[in-house]
Recover the amino acids of this structure.
DNA sequence: TATTGTTATACTCTATAACTATA
DNA sequence: TATAGTTATAGAGTATAACAATA
């Protein structure tokens, strides 16, 4: 299959999945992405988080503002360079993140559960590929 | 890898790709999705298109309205049941769709070109899997 | 001046609710 | 009444521009 067609099919299925995911989730995808990053890599600056998600710092500031209002993250000005603001997970943020992952209502996890082992393997490999594509 | 983690990673990379795709495209993902569907399956009703994209008919009506304003699709009331409106590609719509696919500036197609053949194969298989997941 | 971050504002996409026309 | 479609409105997510604080 020509790569242009693959790209096209990928775009379309991405849109469908994103809509499907948006529909029934407690935490939005972008919020989960930030919480996950903080959980995996520890406290980070606004810019660092923005770069990690390939998002503008202004957009990330807005996202962080929302998460802070919900008590899921805390802002702490860096002691060395006070222009920088370190963002870190609160206890509540970590708990909500883990609870979200555990949710048995998570239809996507269930859907993936329903795939055959070989198919799950393909999906895992594809995710690694997509991560590489996303940073190009 | 537990399927909950796969689901989580998939969510995150999806968000990143969607932002990346939104950045530098002539036609938005949802517009391409509609034009592609009309190209592949021929004229369809608003509801049919909405169902095909897992989108509300109201949202689809809005999308179609935009495409119509740009002259890419035409609305034609069905002759049998005049409540129904058939949507079809115009010549310009088909040309723009094809031209978009051909674009050598299409970074996604280029990125996929840069993958190894075996990796491209994995991606194609994964897309088929994602399509199945999207309709669950 | 350059850098980090935030606020203000606007645009895109999609949802729900309310409405019109046809069956 | 039920169905197909549309319009009005609202919300989420992210972008750009303008601004403030610190280096």
């Amino acid at each position: 299959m020509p790569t242009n067609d693959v790209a096209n099919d990928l775009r379309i299925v991405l849109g469908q999945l994103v809509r499907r995911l948006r529909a029934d989730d407690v935490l939005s995808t972008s919020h989960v992405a930030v919480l996950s990053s903080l959980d995996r890599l520890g406290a980070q600056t606004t810019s660092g988080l923005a770069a990690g998600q390939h998002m503008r710092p202004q957009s990330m500031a807005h996202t962080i503002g929302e998460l802070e209002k919900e008590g899921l993250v805390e802002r702490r000005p860096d002691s060395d360079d006070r222009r920088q603001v370190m963002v870190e997970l609160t206890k509540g943020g970590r708990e909500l993140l883990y609870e979200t992952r555990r949710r048995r209502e998570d239809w996507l996890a269930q859907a993936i559960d329903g795939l055959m082992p070989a198919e799950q393997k393909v999906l895992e490999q594809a995710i690694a590929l997509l991560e590489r594509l996303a940073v190009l």
The first strand of chain A starts at residue 44 and ends at 45. Chain A touches chain B through 54 residues (CB under 8 Å). The mean pLDDT of chain A is 90.
